[in-house]
């Protein structure tokens, strides 16, 4: 296809503003997929994504569109993930396209992720077409939202397209805007091959699939290619495009987006952002490249049944093949036995991986408290990256500890502003900005990541009844008074429950933890002390009293069925328990104990 007839774009939007629905409609109205094959949310491939309504991996589709001027165009849509955990994936896929549709729900207006994502598009020098969605709803207020886009984002929204992705209204206008308002890609067909490695993943049938955007030159089947950063060389086996099903083509030329396979063994062998060129005729101008995405949240994953350790290893290895941003290493815990310390981009990423292990591999897991990476500076000058609070060195050897901080942007209706400020303050936040985005307060806080990692987002949703929107970015490390708090159950330390806390909040956190555990651990035949300690010093304590009566006593002895049922229920409950010394701790305790309300 001639460059002048290609348009490459992405869609940026806040969660639920209708990005996937719009993409589906664009695909459907251009007959890219036969009507009978059309599923809701075509682009969300995995079940989990579908269930949770979130898009995780960048997905791509090539749409053939005959415009009203009679000319045929090729439109390549790269779908980007909408969740904060995957901000990095958004930024890299944006570099592969020239323009964006900025979708804003016209009943809601600009939200935190609208801002975060549109700034990424602006950074990538995109031409931006504003689209006001959901105009079929009575609450739609396009004039207000267009004005808000101009005020807050500073782009012209007077020509914003008014769309209902649901009814299909405005879709032709959107397609026309893509053709006439977005720039055509540039590139030189006769130059040496220069292609961007946009993404890669593992396909059970094809092996590693690499998504590429051709900048210059032409890529053909059988070509010998070289990845310029890693120096690896491969022969191209297959070349194709997504319609959205994988369809092979003979070649990809400048401006085009498609996939290749090349008997690459694992996803880890491909570096996102790398430049692909021909081995014989190399480009002398590789792309600037990307910094790799680094895991920021770590937790331990242990099988509930220790006999399943090998199965867990297998599952984790397989998942890691397909997800280079997920890291793992073996870990052994006195209390939990063998497991893995895993690193994730954020909490959602953690939940997705954990769910997949439990569901697809049928392994029940104990997940230990998520922790961020601390920088521990030793008195001898060494710096240790601490991924697991249990590994915190002896305090006498530690000079100081630094923790990662984030810049959080929160948009919230006026009514809930007070609650949000209090929440941020409670989480050791430092206010940076309090301005207005249109009529709504826009709050910017500098917060410690570890205070956000666990349940900040849930708390924010609950104190604002779901009306707040939130986005964050890492800003760096800063020193603070941080200590390790250990938890002892029946005088045995439970390393999986130890956590890093700020010294000033240690007592409060310790008390909350002990109270929670007291509720979560079932009573035993003996009294169980539950303590929180820093170093050797106990800072909080609760006692779980002994069980006095037999559990079946309340069945009045007579009803045998009921008695059996009760015992069975207990047995089922037991499956999810772990033995610590003489005490059994239920699986959910590890997560619940750390939630602060
Ligand atoms: P993520 O993939 O989670 O980022 O969300 P999204 O932005 O892709 O939103 P999605 O397309 O899943 O739409 C969110 C909800 O809004 C769904 O329930 C859609 O059915 C609904 N929706 C999308 N577009 C319209 C529209 O034009 N009108 C109405 N009434 N509902 C819409």
TrEMBL record:
Keywords: Cell membrane, Elongation factor, GTP-binding, Hydrolase, Membrane, Nucleotide-binding, Protein biosynthesis. It is found in: Cell membrane. It comes from the Bacteria. CDD domains: EF4_II, EF4_III, LepA, lepA_C. InterPro entries: EF-4 (IPR006297), EFG_III/V (IPR035647), EFG_V-like (IPR000640), EFTu-like_2 (IPR004161), G_TR_CS (IPR031157), LepA_C_sf (IPR038363), LepA_CTD (IPR013842), LepA_IV (IPR035654). It catalyses: GTP + H2O = GDP + phosphate + H(+). Belongs to the TRAFAC class translation factor GTPase superfamily. Classic translation factor GTPase family. LepA subfamily. This is Elongation factor 4. It comes from Lutimaribacter marinistellae.
């Amino acid at each position: 296809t001639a460059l002048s007839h290609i348009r490459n774009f992405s869609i940026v939007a806040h969660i639920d503003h209708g990005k996937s629905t719009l993409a589906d409609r664009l695909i459907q109205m251009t007959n890219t997929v036969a009507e009978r094959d059309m599923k809701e949310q075509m682009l969300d491939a995995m079940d989990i994504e579908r269930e949770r309504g979130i898009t995780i991996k960048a997905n791509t589709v090539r749409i053939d569109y005959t415009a009203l001027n009679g000319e045929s165009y090729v439109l390549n849509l790269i779908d980007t993930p909408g969740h904060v955990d995957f901000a990095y994936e958004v930024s890299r896929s944006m570099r592969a396209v020239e323009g964006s549709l900025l979708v804003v729900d016209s009943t809601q207006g600009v939200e935190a992720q609208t801002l975060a994502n549109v700034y990424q598009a602006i950074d990538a020098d995109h031409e931006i077409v504003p689209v006001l969605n959901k105009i079929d709803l009575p609450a739609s207020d396009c004039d207000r939202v267009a004005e808000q886009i101009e005020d807050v984002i500073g782009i012209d929204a007077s020509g914003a397209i008014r769309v209902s992705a649901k009814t299909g209204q405005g879709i032709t206008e959107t397609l026309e805007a893509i053709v006439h308002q977005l720039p055509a890609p540039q590139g030189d067909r006769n130059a040496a091959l220069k292609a961007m490695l946009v993404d890669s993943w593992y396909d059970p049938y094809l092996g590693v699939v690499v998504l590429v955007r051709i900048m210059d030159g032409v890529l053909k089947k059988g070509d010998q290619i070289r990845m310029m950063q890693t120096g690896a060389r491969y022969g191209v086996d297959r070349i194709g495009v997504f319609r959205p099903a994988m369809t092979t083509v003979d070649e990809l030329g400048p401006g085009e987006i498609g996939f290749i396979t090349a008997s690459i063994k694992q996803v880890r062998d491909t570096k996102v952002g790398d430049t692909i060129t021909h081995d014989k005729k190399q480009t002398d101008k590789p792309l600037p490249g990307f910094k790799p995405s680094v895991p920021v949240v770590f937790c331990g994953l242990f099988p509930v049944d220790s006999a399943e350790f090998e199965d867990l290893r297998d599952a984790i290895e397989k998942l890691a093949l397909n997800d280079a941003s997920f890291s793992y290493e073996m870990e052994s815990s006195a209390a939990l036995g063998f497991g893995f310390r895993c690193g994730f981009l954020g909490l959602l990423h953690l939940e997705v991986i954990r769910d997949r292990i439990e569901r697809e591999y049928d392994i029940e897991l104990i997940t230990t408290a998520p922790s961020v990476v601390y920088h521990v500076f030793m008195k001898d000058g060494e710096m240790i990256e601490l991924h697991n609070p249990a590994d915190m060195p002896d305090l006498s050897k530690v000079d100081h500890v630094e923790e990662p901080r984030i810049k959080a942007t929160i948009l919230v209706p006026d009514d809930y502003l007070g609650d949000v400020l209090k929440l941020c303050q409670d989480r050791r936040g430092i206010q940076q900005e309090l301005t207005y985005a249109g009529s709504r307060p826009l709050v910017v806080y500098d917060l410690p990541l570890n205070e956000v990692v666990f349940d900040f987002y849930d708390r924010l949703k609950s104190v604002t009844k779901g009306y707040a929107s939130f986005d964050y970015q890492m800003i760096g490390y800063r020193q603070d008074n941080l200590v390790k708090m250990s938890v002892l159950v029946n005088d045995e330390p439970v390393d999986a429950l130890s956590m890093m806390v700020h010294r000033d909040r240690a007592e409060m956190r310790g008390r909350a933890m002990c109270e929670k555990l007291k509720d979560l651990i079932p009573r035993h035949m003996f009294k169980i002390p539950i303590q929180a300690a820093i170093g050797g010093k106990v800072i909080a304590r609760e006692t779980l009293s002994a069980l006095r009566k037999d559990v079946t006593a309340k069945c009045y002895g007579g009803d045998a069925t009921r008695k059996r049922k009760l015992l069975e229920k207990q047995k089922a409950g037991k499956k999810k328990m772990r033995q610590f010394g003489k005490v059994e701790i239920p699986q959910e305790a590890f997560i619940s104990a750390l939630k602060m309300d």
